[in-house]
Amino acid sequence: MVVCERTSYRNLHSFLSRTGIRATRLDISDLLREIRQCRFCFSEQEGEARTPFVYSPANPDIVVVSEMPSTAAWEKDMGSLWARGDLFGGRTRGAPHKLCQWLEMDQNEASNRFFWIQRANCAISIGKRFAFQHCSAKFLDRAIDLVDPRIVLILGRFAAEYFFKFRDTKEVMGEVRTYEGSQVPHDCIVLTHPSQAAQKYQKRPEQKKSIQLAIEKIRTASM
User: Fold this and answer.
1) What is the spatial distance between Cα 66 and Cα 163, in angstroms, rounded to a whole number?
2) How many CA atoms, within 13 angstroms, populate the side-chain half-sphere of residue 48?
3) Domain segments of the chain: what residues?
4) DSSP per-residue codes, 171-192
5) What digits encode the pLDDT tens for the residues 8-59?
6) CB within 8 A of 61, min separation 6: which ones?
7) Domain over 2-222 is classified CATH 3.40.1440.10
8) By the number of CB atoms within 10 A of the CB, which of 20, 38, 70, 191 ranks highest?
9) Is the whole-model pTM more than 0.70?
């Protein structure tokens, strides 16, 4: 039963946390495989196979939580590039590029440190709220527990709604907040989504404060 599996998993994670052992690559690989094989929210038709979006290097220490792949990225099956270890998809711009720009981080470092997951790992046009809820409940906390990141970077309103309650996104920006829904509490920073559509929000004071805090946290963790 699901409850038994979850309890067993949490007991294992608790033991690993107490002994200081980080999740193994095998643990992460199992979760990545499960996410990429999930077809619950997307009715896959012959000849239209797509790979759900999730990315991880061998030993990530930063979890990035975004919202949902764009329709264009989904149609181009960019998720398959993520699965092959190419977070930037051979492109010159995109959400990973913009986040690296904000964090003053080169792409190689990001590729080696980011575990990037979406609240909904497939692009769908109908039932987005359901997809957000289903995918998040099934995968998000497990990913955070497995990676045990130094910081969780949350991109955009829909991603932030899983972690915190608020009326306006700026209420949860500009500070380091603690998420206690996973097995162990984790520090989180909420940022505006790094998409073209969210450009008007990316110059707000709370966004600048969030970026500065994220830079400081990541640099401290690298020491």
Assistant:
1) 12
2) 10
3) 2-222
4) GGBSS-EEE-SSSS-EEEEEE-
5) 333 444 444 444 444 455 589 999 999 998 877 665 444 467 888 999 999 9
6) 113, 147, 149, 150, 221
7) no
8) 191
9) yes
